[in-house]
Specification:
The protein is of the alpha+beta class. Strands 3-4-7-5-6 form a 5-stranded antiparallel β-sheet, covered by helices on one side. Strands 1-2 form a two-stranded parallel sheet. The chain is globular and about 45 Å long. It starts with a helix and ends with a strand.
């Protein structure tokens, strides 16, 4: 990301592969940044949190959370990523997944790794909750 920013090279990060986008066909003379290997899910039973890699889909999340006896609101399709809102079967019980988001590690368009939360880089945090892919590249979400 930093190299692309310095050399003015267009780039498009891709992860779980869900959705339709006209952006894919418009990336000319640029780089596609494949985040597909970032699908880790780490569950902290004491803190009652899960940290989920930026390319993880709900399908990647179900088994580790079930093994820890946790559940989260998810979309109805296992192919959706974690910043997709979480409109689905559990929203009446737990709200949307985006309502449960505590923090994100992300890479800005300038290539800087930052943490965003309700107390750190707050404006970007609220932006990421509504239109995340427009503000940076999600490394992981807690």
């Amino acid at each position: 990301v930093q190299l692309c920013a310095e050399l003015n090279i267009p780039f498009l990060p891709t992860g779980g592969g869900h959705g339709y986008s006209t952006s894919f066909g418009k990336l000319k003379n640029g780089l596609s940044l494949d985040l597909g290997a970032s699908k880790q899910v780490t569950v902290d039973k004491i803190a009652k949190t899960a940290t989920i890699g930026g390319a993880a889909t709900f399908g990647d999340v179900f088994d580790p959370l079930y093994a820890a006896a946790f559940e989260i609101p998810t979309g109805s399709c296992t192919c959706v990523g974690t910043l997709a809102g979480g409109v689905g079967r559990y929203q009446a019980i737990h709200g949307l997944i985006i309502d449960n988001l505590l923090s994100l590690q992300m890479i800005t368009a300038a290539g800087k790794l930052i943490t965003v939360s309700a107390t750190e880089n707050t404006e970007i945090f609220w932006g990421m909750r509504g239109a995340g892919f427009n503000y940076g590249v999600e490394v992981n979400a807690t």
